[in-house]
Design brief:
The complex is a heterodimer of chains A (316) and B (165). Chain A is of the alpha+beta class and 316 residues long. Chain A is built from 13 helices and 13 strands. In chain A, a hairpin with a 7-residue loop joins strand 10 and strand 11. Chain B folds into two domains: 82 residues, Ubiquitin-like (UB roll) (Roll); 69 residues, [2Fe-2S]-binding domain (DNA polymerase, domain 1), CATH 1.10.150.120. In chain B, strands 3-2-6-4-5 form a five-stranded mixed β-sheet. Classes of the chains: A alpha+beta (316), B alpha+beta (165).
Amino acid sequence: MGMNIQEATESPLVWQPQTAEEAWKYKQSYGDDGVYIAGGTLLRTQWEAGTAIPPRHFIDLNSIPGLNEISIGEEGLLIGSQTTLQACRANPLLQRHFPMVIAAVRTIAAPSIRNLATIGGNIVSVVGDSITALLAYDAVLVWYNGVKEQEEDLADWLPEAAKPGNRHDRLLLRLLLPFKAYRKEETPCSSEEGQVNSDTKLFHAYHKIGRRESFTPSLVTVSVSGLLTRTGVIEELQIAVGGGQTIPGRLEEAERAVKGKIVDNAMLAYLYDRIIELYEPREDIFASAAYRKRTAANLIVTELWKAFGGLSEQGG
Amino acid sequence: MSDKVSGNELANGLTCSINGGVQSIPASPSKTLLTLLRDDFALTGTKRSCDIGRCGACMVLIDGKPFNSCLTMAYQCCGKQITTIEGLSAGGIGSIQQAFLEEGGFQCGYCTPGMIISVKALLDDNPDPSDDEIAEALSGNLCRCTGYGGIWRAVKRAIELIGCQ
């Protein structure tokens, strides 16, 4: 208690750019002594914990018009980087087309934090719990690099961003969640399983495992989605895993290995083993890597089993 | 480039509404709303506890939505309407506070202002929330005394009281 660390330091200067170009120029001018800031929830806790030094210059991204909007673009849904997590949580377009993002956002902190924290902040933290859901939807990041807008797959950016010494000079403007042709007919009120037509069925699930029921840091996050035929053939499959300080990623090798296969006991056992092999979580004092691997594999295999209606019901 | 808001400039220019009254106060841009409310305005109903947004004791309404005042910085409050627990009682005890009294929704009382603010935000937005919606709305408020049973009953009672109005 008492005076906060930031209050005890020199008063910062808050810059309020009106365009992305202005914001980028401020960042170029101040370098490591300036930080892009929106909600500031993560930065504030880092300053309080002493894991980051409060900068002398805040570059307030909330002052840039248009970065907090969600709209439909030609290729998919566009989410402004300054959209608060709570605004994402309540958005009907996200609820309709990208339910795993809603499920993920719902598990992040509490409404009062989500009113301040932004989707962009969750992404650039590199380990935010929305990221596994965004990866499963093949999210694309749109940056301003000082000259022009630049698109980059979230999956490509994450490993680079996590490298030590990586400078975050580019400004995240928005993210694009592409509409997939096979998902277009998904019903407005997406349930756990959605019928695309009489022959195929969409499924999707997001899970966050922590050490308590709500408002908890994650140990494991999992997103799994895809398309199954009536006979149990996996036509499409996306698997993303993360949690804790693990850099989230897609398990593309596992996806490829079972795509086109029929969901049966042998396939699920094989998939389980592949997940254990491919998922490389960071362990900490609370949970071992082995525990996290087993948890992720169980969740993913269970969702596939549920999507096919349970093998016992199918005589499997 | 655009205007710069420096600490000194903010000291002369931070203007917001607190419990319905327009206020202009000197403050560093990074000073927390919690410190401003307690130290500059003596609004000590807003409680300091974890200082990192985990416990909800410092909850206030900003433009009608719940925020942790320990995470909210002064510059983020410019032009906003801030309501503290004192602002909810300006016209006497309200339905939510009455419900907490009737149902034993508190013991030591330290978390209670934050709880009541969160319930106020919930019921203003959704007067008839489901159990899941109540749980989600209160997921950022911790209580070390009650075991939450009394708080849960108080929320249910508040829904009834407000529904009868």
